[in-house]
């Protein structure tokens, strides 16, 4: 019940946040019209129309400043804004007060739009948790909730079901889809004595297992906790104006008091407060971020966290998952080799494809798909098809009894694997391939090697990435041979293979403790904790899981990974723009203060000067919309 209440509260908070943004837009539109009426002295109301902007935009700022001061003695930029508003109203400068309130509300809206978050990843991850388990007691099977499974229980898992606990297979053979934990694109064959993890999916054969870790100790629950803890540890960047707010307030108040004491003119003191309002300073960061987000969106990057690009600008390492990120995540036939003088490589390929037609295994489907794509031939129907879970298939094709599978299947049917075939298999295995042995009439005749395929753009992307000063790292759940083969093709020398979700998280944490912020790029459910832990998480939105996308700060909608170097370069350029905006804003503030002290500026002119500074900041930020690094 508590979980349902918590979910409902989270959804309500998101709705209120969205409603707040819509409300702010309406208030700004009304206030903007009111200020225009005030400029042209339109006698629409019996009072200055600028009061509408003061009430709608100014009152919330004043209330927030007062609440922050009273409850936490928290001095932010809105404290100085409130002082300027009150002072301007007291001396009758209604338009100046309304304009300052409008500009500050506009900056707040831009920040809200920039940092608006849309996350539901943890909820979806929880949905992957197994719901029930088939527990065997005294030879009888009964279905119980998965959370009631205890260590030592005997459990039966049928094809298509999710493994309810971590444990060891006692009887049966099968293939397990471990993508949720390791990200591997292919199911892994399992037999008696092999370990299985909760949350993984049993693809083909039924088996019985002994539970060793269940409930909160299981793999899937540990991963959920990792995602939550990694997110909680990610620091958020505080606005520059708020970081400097204490000093801004002190300097502004001292300047105003001293000027009033020396000249005796309160209007000069009020002008100082007005021109010292950090309007341009508040706009400096969010406008640049919004423009950069727009630029990134044109290239398929959906930035979900407002400060993600700020964090991306300082990353030193770019960590990549292999399957589905640097590669397509789809197995393809890499080689066909015949060891029989009577059968050619093409005939081996045709016989195997025919035998695999009825197979549901991804490797079998890949053989059939690749054969048809290469030779454009229709395959004949087969008879006597038999699938052996965890081993391979048998079928009669072209008048021959064919078998295609692993070495255990060859041993079962009495087909010896000769030295030449073993040597060929070892060669392909060392290159990260998966090998299918092929036999005809109980005699081995060759093999087919399959492997994942490197994306065409990966190598060029890695080379360009190094040019931005970012070092690539491969962190994958695949075996060492497959990882090293793909890494060498892509141009990556820093490799971590055989990684579970907690391993990926620890590797990223170790880099970041050495002051090397990491950008993690992944696509699988098993990447979610690492995406959360990294300084910036980027998920492959097209081929990736929904959970990985929700866990990340940025989603790559079209999977065009070659644009990643542009995104990092854009983030660095954005920070240069922000620094220019801040420098200009501060310089304008101090020049305006000097002019206010000497009496050159009055509150209205001061507000207009400040407004011009805000416009210049927005225009400078807008250049980021079409920015592209020259090659």
Automatic annotation (TrEMBL):
<feature type="transmembrane region" description="Helical">
    <location>
        <begin position="269"/>
        <end position="294"/>
    </location>
</feature>
<keyword id="KW-0186">Copper</keyword>
<dbReference type="GO" id="GO:0005886">
    <property type="term" value="C:plasma membrane"/>
</dbReference>
<dbReference type="GO" id="GO:0006825">
    <property type="term" value="P:copper ion transport"/>
</dbReference>
<dbReference type="Pfam" id="PF00702">
    <property type="entry name" value="Hydrolase"/>
</dbReference>
<dbReference type="InterPro" id="IPR036412">
    <property type="entry name" value="HAD-like_sf"/>
</dbReference>
<dbReference type="InterPro" id="IPR023214">
    <property type="entry name" value="HAD_sf"/>
</dbReference>
<keyword id="KW-1278">Translocase</keyword>
<keyword id="KW-1133">Transmembrane helix</keyword>
<dbReference type="InterPro" id="IPR001757">
    <property type="entry name" value="P_typ_ATPase"/>
</dbReference>
<dbReference type="GO" id="GO:0016887">
    <property type="term" value="F:ATP hydrolysis activity"/>
</dbReference>
<keyword id="KW-1003">Cell membrane</keyword>
<keyword id="KW-0472">Membrane</keyword>
<feature type="domain" description="P-type ATPase A">
    <location>
        <begin position="128"/>
        <end position="228"/>
    </location>
</feature>
<dbReference type="InterPro" id="IPR051014">
    <property type="entry name" value="Cation_Transport_ATPase_IB"/>
</dbReference>
<dbReference type="InterPro" id="IPR018303">
    <property type="entry name" value="ATPase_P-typ_P_site"/>
</dbReference>
<feature type="transmembrane region" description="Helical">
    <location>
        <begin position="244"/>
        <end position="263"/>
    </location>
</feature>
<feature type="transmembrane region" description="Helical">
    <location>
        <begin position="607"/>
        <end position="625"/>
    </location>
</feature>
<dbReference type="GO" id="GO:0008551">
    <property type="term" value="F:P-type cadmium transporter activity"/>
</dbReference>
<feature type="transmembrane region" description="Helical">
    <location>
        <begin position="25"/>
        <end position="45"/>
    </location>
</feature>
<feature type="transmembrane region" description="Helical">
    <location>
        <begin position="582"/>
        <end position="601"/>
    </location>
</feature>
<dbReference type="InterPro" id="IPR027256">
    <property type="entry name" value="P-typ_ATPase_IB"/>
</dbReference>
<keyword id="KW-0479">Metal-binding</keyword>
<dbReference type="InterPro" id="IPR023299">
    <property type="entry name" value="ATPase_P-typ_cyto_dom_N"/>
</dbReference>
<dbReference type="InterPro" id="IPR008250">
    <property type="entry name" value="ATPase_P-typ_transduc_dom_A_sf"/>
</dbReference>
<dbReference type="InterPro" id="IPR059000">
    <property type="entry name" value="ATPase_P-type_domA"/>
</dbReference>
<dbReference type="InterPro" id="IPR023298">
    <property type="entry name" value="ATPase_P-typ_TM_dom_sf"/>
</dbReference>
<keyword id="KW-0104">Cadmium</keyword>
<keyword id="KW-0187">Copper transport</keyword>
<comment type="similarity">
    <text>Belongs to the cation transport ATPase (P-type) (TC 3.A.3) family. Type IB subfamily.</text>
</comment>
<keyword id="KW-0812">Transmembrane</keyword>
<dbReference type="Pfam" id="PF00122">
    <property type="entry name" value="E1-E2_ATPase"/>
</dbReference>
<keyword id="KW-0547">Nucleotide-binding</keyword>
<keyword id="KW-0067">ATP-binding</keyword>
<dbReference type="GO" id="GO:0046872">
    <property type="term" value="F:metal ion binding"/>
</dbReference>
<feature type="transmembrane region" description="Helical">
    <location>
        <begin position="51"/>
        <end position="70"/>
    </location>
</feature>
<dbReference type="InterPro" id="IPR044492">
    <property type="entry name" value="P_typ_ATPase_HD_dom"/>
</dbReference>
<dbReference type="GO" id="GO:0005524">
    <property type="term" value="F:ATP binding"/>
</dbReference>
<keyword id="KW-0813">Transport</keyword>
<keyword id="KW-0406">Ion transport</keyword>
<protein>
    <recommendedName>
        <fullName>Cd(2+)-exporting ATPase</fullName>
        <ecNumber>7.2.2.21</ecNumber>
    </recommendedName>
</protein>
């Amino acid at each position: 019940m508590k979980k349902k209440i918590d979910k409902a509260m989270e959804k309500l908070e998101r709705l209120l946040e969205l409603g707040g943004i819509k409300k702010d837009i309406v208030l700004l539109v009304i206030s903007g019209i009111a200020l225009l009426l005030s400029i042209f002295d339109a006698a629409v109301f019996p009072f200055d129309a600028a009061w509408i902007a003061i009430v709608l935009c100014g009152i919330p700022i004043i209330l927030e400043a007062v609440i922050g001061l009273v409850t936490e003695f928290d001095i932010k930029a809105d404290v100085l804004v409130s002082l300027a508003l009150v002072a301007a109203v007291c001396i009758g400068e209604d338009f100046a007060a309304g304009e300052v309130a409008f500009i500050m509300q506009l900056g707040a809206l831009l920040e809200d739009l920039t940092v608006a978050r849309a996350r539901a990843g943890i909820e979806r991850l929880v949905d992957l948790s197994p719901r029930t388990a088939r527990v065997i007691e005294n030879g009888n099977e009964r279905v119980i909730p998965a959370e009631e499974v205890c260590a030592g229980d005997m459990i039966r898992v049928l094809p298509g079901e999710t493994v309810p606990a971590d444990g060891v297979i006692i009887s049966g053979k099968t293939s397990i889809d471990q993508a949720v934990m390791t990200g591997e694109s292919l199911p892994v064959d399992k037999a008696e004595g092999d370990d299985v993890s909760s949350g993984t999916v049993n693809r083909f054969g039924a088996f019985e297992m002994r539970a060793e870790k269940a409930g909160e100790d299981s793999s899937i629950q540990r991963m959920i906790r990792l995602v939550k803890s990694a997110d909680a540890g990610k620091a958020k960047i505080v606005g520059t104006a708020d970081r400097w707010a204490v000093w801004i307030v002190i300097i502004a108040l001292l300047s105003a008091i001293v000027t009033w004491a020396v000249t005796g003119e309160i209007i000069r003191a009020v002008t100082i407060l007005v021109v010292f309002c950090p309007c341009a300073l508040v706009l400096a960061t969010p406008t640049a971020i919004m423009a950069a987000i727009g630029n990134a969106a044109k290239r398929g990057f959906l930035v979900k966290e407002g400060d993600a690009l700020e964090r991306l600008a300082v990353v030193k390492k770019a960590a990549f998952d292999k399957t589905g990120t640097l590669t397509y995540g789809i197995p393809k036939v890499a080689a066909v080799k015949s060891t029989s003088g009577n059968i050619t490589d093409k005939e081996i390929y045709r016989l195997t494809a025919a035998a695999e037609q009825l197979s549901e295994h991804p490797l079998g489907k890949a053989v059939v798909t690749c054969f048809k794509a290469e030779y454009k031939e229709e395959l004949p129907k087969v008879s006597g098809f038999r699938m052996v879970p965890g081993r391979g298939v048998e079928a009669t094709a072209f008048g021959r009894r064919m078998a295609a599978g692993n070495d255990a299947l060859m041993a079962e049917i009495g087909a010896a694997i000769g030295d030449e075939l073993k040597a060929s298999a070892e060669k392909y295995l060392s290159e990260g391939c998966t090998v299918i042995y092929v036999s005809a009439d109980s005699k081995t005749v060759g093999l087919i090697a399959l492997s994942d395929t490197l994306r065409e753009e990966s190598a060029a992307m890695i080379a360009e990435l190094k040019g931005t000063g970012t070092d690539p790292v491969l962190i994958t759940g695949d075996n060492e041979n497959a990882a090293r083969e793909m890494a060498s093709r892509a141009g990556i020398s820093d490799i971590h293979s055989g990684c579970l979700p907690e391993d990926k998280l620890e590797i990223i944490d170790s880099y970041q403790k050495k002051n090397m912020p990491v950008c993690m790029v992944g696509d699988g459910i098993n990447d979610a904790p690492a995406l959360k832990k990294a300084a910036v998480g980027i998920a492959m939105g097209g081929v990736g899981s929904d959970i990985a996308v929700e866990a990340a700060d940025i989603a790559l909608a079209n999977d065009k990974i070659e644009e990643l170097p542009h995104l990092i370069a854009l983030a660095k350029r954005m920070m240069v723009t922000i620094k220019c905006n801040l420098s200009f804003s501060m310089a304008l503030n101090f020049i305006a203060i000097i002019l206010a002290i000497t009496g050159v500026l009055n509150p209205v002119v001061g507000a207009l000067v400040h407004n011009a500074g805000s416009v210049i900041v927005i225009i400078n930020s807008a250049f980021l919309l079409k920015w592209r690094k020259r090659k």
